[in-house]
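The freezer alarm interrupted the setup, so I double-checked each line after restarting. Inputs confirmed:
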Amino acid sequence: MTSTVGEPGVSALLGITAPGDGELRRLHDRLATAADEDGILDIGYTTIDSPVGPLLLAATARGLLRVAYQNEDHDRVLSVLASRVSPRILRAPQRLDAAAREIAEYFAGRRTTFDLPLDFSLSHGFRQLVQQRLPQIGYGNTRSYGQVAEMVGHPNAVRAVGTACATNPVPIVVPCHRVVRADGSLGGYAGGPAAKSTLLALEAA
Amino acid sequence: MTGAKQPFEAVVAEHGATVLRVCRAVLGPHPDAEDAWSETFLAALRAYPGLPADANIQAWLVTIAHRKAIDVTRARQRRAVPVGDVPEAARAGGAAGGPGGPAGGGDDPAAGDEDVWAAVSALPVKQRQAVAYHYLAALPYKDIAALVGGSTEAARRAAADGIRNLRTAFAGAAAKGADR
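Predicted 3D structure, all chains:
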């Protein structure tokens, strides 16, 4: 197209066909709605602000698929979802309305458990088993990796529990932050140690 | 992520404006252009998982937009609105402030837009398509020929003739704007 720069006919055409203010955003939203209605929006996502930084929320029609911290790089996370689940991905905040509301309530101290359908298709086997059991650790409580290993009936799988927590696709909602080291130190966290201690402090308040 | 397909959101962000320009150039400054855009991206989203990772996405989208614009034009004809009235209808819609009016109610209506639209709508359909696909979406002439029929050379001529006609109209509009 560089060869046409300065061509008056092209300039005229570019001038009269230019999208109006907000027009593309409106068309995009209309597309996301239509895609959802047609059942071809495999993953809808949005980003929300939180006390632990911007969070990416992504959901399939089955449920919440991914919660990602900013330090995980939201674009990279979406690329991984495109290759591992489906590239039919659009920003579609309406699909995340319930998740965004419950997470906001959690950070406001008004919610201690989440009532959201979850899609665990990003994790398998033992990891998924551990992740599905983590909500049994109640709000404001913590367990050691070893205690969680016992909780899931594999007392020697302490290391694997650590991996399961580290690969939790829906942090905050599935409370891997409530799993800490036996000596009381924090242990690792996808959102970084500061995020983990913020969540634990919020729940201790 | 080598060879992986990007999220469709990125496709819309990268090509949405170009596809809208193409739809508008072919269909006029009319809500039909937005309908064609929506139908294009909806069909593209549906087919996206099967698209080869190395495909020329913009050319693929223009191909879909070409067909969707034809569908929209046929639907419009069934509603018995003459195609020749496109710019007139668009102006009426803009004056009424209807949704999806010309350029989405842009804040800077350049002097002479109506003259350029009149020139665009006066182009033979193949010239209008060739100009839109080549000059707005950089579609190669051989691909344009495959879409609109005829030879690659004919597509090249249609684009050249079309852009010359628009240039003339643009010069006239500019002169008229300067008079105001």
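Quick read of the result. The helical segments of chain B are 8-27, 31-47, 57-78, 86-95, 113-122, 125-136, 141-148, 152-179.
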